[in-house]
Amino acid sequence: MRYRLPALNTRVLTAVLVVGLPVLAIGTAVVLAIGQIRLKDAEAARLERIAEYVAGSVDAYFFRSILDTAVLARVPAVRRTAEEGSARPFDRDAALELDREWQRDGAAAAARTGLLESETAQFLADLRQHDSVFREILLTDRYGRLVAASNITSDYFQADESWWYDAFDQGRGRVHVTDVRRDESAGVYAFEIAMPVPLPTGEIVGVMKIVADSREMLADVAGLDLGDTAEATLVRSDGSIVFSRRPHAPGDRFFAADLMRQQLDARAQGTATGPLQFEAGAEDRSHRLVVLAQSQLRQTYPDLDWYVALSVAENEMLAPFRSLFWYLMIAFALTAIAVLAIALWFSLRLAAPTIDPATGLHLVEHPAVRQLDAEP
């Protein structure tokens, strides 16, 4: 007896495969696309929260430094020294002559005037020595003449400096702060705070300036570790870099400065809303997600238009998704095999003869036979 392979209903098999496999493939593609989009959105939201936290810590440190300077400017010895200096007659020519001597030989001029030996100067020097944040502290009278300093300064007469003019404000007094920059006299990248020195009556008798090392303020930016390719950068609104862990020179620009500027312009014009984020190509040819968080310092000090920019390479960001991708491919393959098996089973089942329930025998349908007329 010859063994016969079971018959297949090719129409059923084709219908199941044509309907089942494409639906499965489309469903898998949709799941992958949605998963990738949601992963990127979740990563962007995470980076946004971290950027806002870092921007907040920078703001808090800056405002705390301003508060510390304000307290320091109200120390009784500081007030008294500024008041005594302001009581001396002011001779501009004499002040400028001493300023020229100071710039030629600051040590000799300082020794001759005794400005670094007063009680207030020793207090400022001790403060600088015990707190590395303070790189330089100086105090002037109401005319801009130096009356005390923590160390030898680059010049004596300060009234021709913009920071002094802004802080004294024609006797009204206001806080003056600068951007982070290299201070040649202190030899560090630092920011400056100039604070009016008021008497209890409100009269402004001098100006105090501190040069503060920026490293502690930027510690959260420098120490942020989000992965192998993640980077944190403090940038200005024009795209120039305030601080980055990477070596940079004054005037260097953020790698996505142009796209950043477009985003900020669109936000200013009201054509864009939502988080400040975009994708950009980096110098190493990696594709990166960039998230920005604005510092709130600008609301009080317009010159400090800073943003914390966090960026991460898309390859690293999607690394967890890619491992899941292969698991999903395995599931797709197993499901495809199951669909094929079901299609085969249905095609075999529908191709088999019908069984007569009364006799249990297969009812085989034969082709119709045309009745031939008998021959005469």
3D structure, described in words:
Strands 1, 2, 3, 4, 5 and 6 form a six-stranded antiparallel β-sheet that branches. Strands 8-7-11-10-9 form a five-stranded antiparallel β-sheet. By secondary structure, it is of the alpha+beta class. It folds into two domains: 1-68 and 218-338, Beta-Lactamase (2-Layer Sandwich), CATH 3.30.450.20; 73-213, PAS domain (Beta-Lactamase, 2-Layer Sandwich). It has helices spanning 10-72, 76-87, 92-104, 106-113, 119-130, 162-168, 219-222, 257-269, 314-317, 319-351, and strands at 134-141, 146-149, 176-177, 181-183, 188-198, 204-213, 231-236, 241-244, 276-281, 287-294, 306-313, 354-355, 362-363. It starts with 9 loop residues before the first helix and ends in a 13-residue tail after the last strand. A hairpin with a 6-residue loop joins strand 12 (354-355) and strand 13 (362-363). 45% of the residues lie in helices and 20% in strands. The mean pLDDT is 82. Helix 1 (10-72) packs antiparallel against helix 10 (319-351) and helix 3 (92-104) packs across helix 4.
Task: Produce a short descriptive summary.
The two termini are 42 Å apart. The chain folds into two domains: 1-68 and 218-338, PAS domain (Beta-Lactamase); 73-213, Beta-Lactamase (2-Layer Sandwich), CATH 3.30.450.20.
